[in-house]
TrEMBL record, chain B:
InterPro entries: HTTM-like, Sporulation_signal_mat. It is found in: Endomembrane system. The keyword Transmembrane applies. Keywords: Membrane, Transmembrane, Transmembrane helix. PANTHER family: HTTM DOMAIN-CONTAINING PROTEIN, SPORULATION-DELAYING PROTEIN SDPB. It is a multi-pass membrane protein. It comes from the Bacteria. Residues 50-362 form the HTTM-like domain. The chain crosses the membrane at residues 20-40, 60-84, 138-157, 164-181, 236-258, 335-359, 374-396, 416-434. This is HTTM-like domain-containing protein. It comes from Nannocystis pusilla.
Length: 282, 593
């Protein structure tokens, strides 16, 4: 059954200013919690400053020792706080760079995969295209070229009945932006009328580049026949199991050598047990 | 920060071994003095980090930032297979070897982890679930789970847990390989960890709503308050933003940032412009000097951004000093703390001088200087400049109160530093496509807002512009000046809109339920009237300018416009068929009819 509310309470609920947090304590922590939180804040600040300030020149030793003391590299990696803020620094690029990606198939024909954006982007450019950035990064950071070529080989195989191409070729394309003073008279320039420079970069063979072959597990997903034995070029890795196996093998070998040596050099005392056992067996 | 400013740009390696030991010692001494400062003045440390603050800015930040995280994730959908599955760029073994940190040793594809505790060091290094398994089904499942946890974080459902899950799962994508990173992704990663440390679910969250609703319906005699939260994660966020800007400004040390051509090049790059026709506009803007000026302003604004932090601290000090709440400390502690600050500046000045000695090239530069002269100049400048700044500030404070107020309000004010940033990022977004970089950068401005400023923003959003001559708004003569100032006047002179009247029954349950509406009424647009004709557990709404009283789902739908928490329902209200559903959703939230 409904009950009428006291007018004062109705005022408090419907018209009074919103209540404040009733806790009068201005501080979030006191005592040990305050100390622990303070230590964490201090640690984070020092790690952050060590990570973001220059680590060379006169600050090199200080920065390195601070990093070692704090183990700040591990902390920044674990918390995903690794950062670098060199945006358009020290200068913005003054060249447009693209990587043309081509495959050579077993019949000798060469196909441009149109992975570069040169002259291919639709304007206005609304939706962010990370592939354009990745394509440029392949030129700036060469370490990505081999895995990228390996992926091109695998992807080609996936979309061509499991048959890999022979080779992936890269060509660096670039146009140089003119200095603004040179284009004021023409009030700008057509970016696609700039001279296109080309430079062939080292290519990658699909048969010999690590991971450029579609592994059997993925081939099975698409119903392709397994690769011939030894065709998959894996990378070298050493896990705890590999180390444990290697260690066990060494121990086993050493034990075998010791047993053999003991058997070959019968000595009094130490060798008696072995001989005794053998004798017992007979 | 100062070290970043003193750092020379990349150049030939210079042998500094002659002073390396002494520079290292001086830098350690500087660090020790900085730490000692807070030992001498612990009350400042407490004020800086251990305060409790209103949770609303953090709550709003959670929502806006969470939406940007979700947007960035959804943006990855077309590349999900390429970037993260074993049918893409990396087979997991190679990704693990290159980017898996300790996991490459601790985990074996056939035998798993050596010990159960091996998971801990694996998690401590860069960890991604995809380093263990990356078939498309698994990757899509993790992607779905990530979007779900980020959505829960945005809504504030089990906020601490959903934030932890979001941090872990989002980093599963980012830790797999860095090949696709952009600046925006770095900001996103860094602030997600800081979000993990923040109790940002105490406002604008379903967690807070459910708690307060439970308390109010259980008999609370006031509308339950929001719980204050520790300030330190928000303060670290402010510092992090200052580091981002200061570092990027200091690193922009190439000649294009000095000759004023940097922005012309940035705007003319194929990878960024929205349309090639922009190049003509950029050329024109360069010709009239606008772009060179903007280049210099950008560099200076970024490098000097930490002044905004100084401003926040100074305003706080002045406010509390005039209110008499600033802590009083013994003279010896105060003097010792000043001496320690001077020692820190002295240490940095000394190292700066050494840097000038080693890196200055006497043959370059506008004025011929020997290396010793350059060293002396830098040391003197580094010592004199802070002293001059402090002296000027104290003089203004004592002799020119108006100028002092202007310095606090504008030169060191958030409105200057954040407004320039806002304009800069909005312009970047219009003319360049840099993914969600702009959105995430603007989102991380929110921790800079105080609760009072946030209240003012809601009030402005919910208010109406005053008419010319109404209230304090001046009546301007027609002309170019009027045309120019009218939009500013509309923003500046505002008055409250007429309230929506909520009619409710007089019984306690009905009153408590309509009182729940106040928790969602951020612009104070509601007033309440008891009306015996309204049945218990129901409400009716009178919309200003409309004499008809609305009841049921129509009343619920009318409230969508003024309760920001329901703005997401607005498109529903426009679509025939689901309108009723929108109204019903609002009423259901408050258990009303």
């Amino acid at each position: 059954m409904s009950q009428e509310l006291h007018p004062r309470l109705a005022d408090a609920l419907l018209r009074a200013p919103p209540a404040e947090d009733p806790a009068e304590e201005p501080w979030a922590y006191r005592g040990w919690p305050a100390l622990l939180v303070s230590l964490f804040i201090l640690y984070h600040l020092l790690a952050l400053l060590q990570h973001t300030t220059p680590s060379g020149g006169l600050a090199e030793r200080f920065n390195r020792r601070l990093a070692e003391t704090l183990r700040s590299g591990a902390y920044m990696r674990a918390t995903s706080s690794v950062q670098s803020w060199a945006m358009f620094a020290p200068n913005p690029h003054r060249t447009n760079m693209f990587l043309q990606v081509r495959v050579v198939t077993s019949d000798g024909s060469e196909w441009d995969l149109l992975h570069d954006i040169y002259g291919r982007r639709d304007y206005p450019y609304f939706f962010y295209d990370r592939m354009g950035k990745i394509n440029r990064r392949l030129i700036e950071q060469e370490r990505y070229q081999s895995p990228y070529a390996a992926w091109v080989c695998r992807e080609w195989a996936r979309t061509h009945g499991g048959e890999a191409p022979v080779r992936v070729n890269f060509t660096k394309l670039w146009t140089k932006l003119p200095h603004p003073s040179k284009v004021i008279s023409t009030m700008g320039f057509d970016p696609f009328a700039l001279k296109l420079h080309k430079e062939d970069l080292p290519g990658f063979d699909c048969a010999t580049t690590p991971h450029a072959q579609m592994p059997d597990a993925i081939r099975a997903r698409y119903g392709f026949a397994p690769l011939p034995e030894g065709a998959f070029i894996d990378i070298e890795t050493t896990t705890w199991h590999d180390r444990a196996t290697a260690k066990a093998r060494i121990l086993q070998r050493r034990r075998a050598v010791e047993v053999k040596r003991a058997a070959e050099e019968p000595v009094e005392g130490g060798g008696a047990e072995v001989g005794g056992n053998d004798g017992g067996g007979d | 920060m100062l070290l970043a400013l003193l750092a020379p740009a990349k150049g030939p390696v210079i042998d500094v071994s002659g002073h390396l030991s002494v520079a290292t010692g001086v830098l350690w001494l500087g660090l020790a003095c900085a730490l000692a400062f807070f030992l001498v003045r612990p009350e400042l440390w407490r004020r800086l980090w251990l305060e409790r603050v209103d949770p609303r800015p953090a709550g709003l930040f959670r929502i806006v930032y969470g939406v940007v995280v979700l947007w960035t994730l959804l943006d990855l959908i077309p590349l999900l297979r390429f970037l993260f599955t074993d049918e893409g760029l990396w087979l997991p073994a190679m990704a693990r070897k290159n980017y898996g940190g300790e996991l490459r040793r601790l985990w074996d594809p056939e035998h798993g982890f050596e010990h159960w505790w091996s998971v801990i060091p694996a998690l401590w290094s860069k960890f991604s679930l995809f380093h263990l398994r990356a078939d498309p089904t698994f990757v899509w499942a993790v992607f779905g789970l990530t979007c779900a946890s980020v959505t829960a974080m945005i809504l504030g459902i089990k906020t601490r847990l959903s934030t932890l899950a979001s941090w872990f799962l989002v980093n599963t994508f980012y830790s797999y390989s860095p090949v696709f990173y952009s600046g925006g992704d770095t900001v996103l990663r860094v602030f997600l960890f800081l979000g993990l440390l923040t109790r940002w679910g105490e406002a604008y969250s379903l967690d807070a709503w459910w708690r307060r609703k439970r308390e109010l319906l259980a008999g609370s005699v006031v509308v339950p308050a929001l719980r204050k939260i520790p300030a330190w994660p928000l303060r670290i966020m402010m510092l992090q933003l200052a580091i981002i800007y200061c570092a990027t400004g200091a690193l922009k040390s190439g000649f294009t940032w000095f000759d004023g051509t940097a922005l012309f090049y940035a705007l003319s790059l194929d990878h960024f412009y929205r349309h090639p026709a922009q190049i003509q506009v950029a050329t024109f803007l360069h010709m009239i000097g606008f772009l060179p000026l903007s280049t210099w302003v950008t560099k200076a604004w970024e490098t000097l951004f930490p002044l905004a932090l100084v401003g926040v601290a100074l305003r706080r000090f002045e406010r509390e000093a005039s209110a008499g709440t600033w802590p009083k400390v013994q003279m010896w502690r105060r003097l010792l703390s000043y001496a320690l600050v001077a020692a820190v500046i002295g240490a940095l000045a000394y190292v700066g001088g050494l840097a000038a000695y080693y890196y200055h090239r006497p043959t370059e530069g506008p004025v011929p200087l020997t290396r010793e002269q350059a060293q002396a100049l830098v040391v003197a400048g580094a010592l004199a400049f802070p002293a001059l700044l402090v002296g000027c500030y104290l003089w203004l404070r004592a002799r020119r109160p108006q100028a002092h107020a202007w310095v606090l309000r504008w030169l060191c004010g958030k409105r200057l530093w954040l407004s320039i940033g806002l304009v800069m990022h909005l312009v970047i977004d219009v003319v360049m496509n840099v993914g969600t970089f702009v959105q995430v950068m603007l989102a991380i401005y929110i921790p800079w807002l105080s609760a009072a400023e946030l209240d003012a923003i809601w009030r402005t959003l919910m208010s109406r512009p005053l008419g010319e001559g109404e209230g304090e708004r001046p009546k301007r003569k027609a002309g170019w000046r009027d045309a120019l100032l009218r939009p500013l006047d509309r923003l500046r002179y505002r008055g409250p809109r007429e309230p929506y009247v909520i009619h409710h029954a007089a019984d306690e349950a009905s009153v408590r339920r309509v009182a729940l509406l106040r928790m969602w009424d951020l612009g104070s647009r509601l007033t309440f009237e008891t009306d015996p004709s309204v049945p218990a557990g129901a409400l009716a709404v009178t919309v200003p300018g409309d004499k008809k009283r609305l009841a049921g789902v129509e009343a619920g739908r009318a409230l969508v416009a003024i309760l920001p928490g329901f703005w997401w329902l607005y498109p529903w209200c426009l679509a025939p068929g689901v309108r009723t559903l929108a109204g019903r959703t609002v009423l259901r939230t408050f258990e009303l009819r």
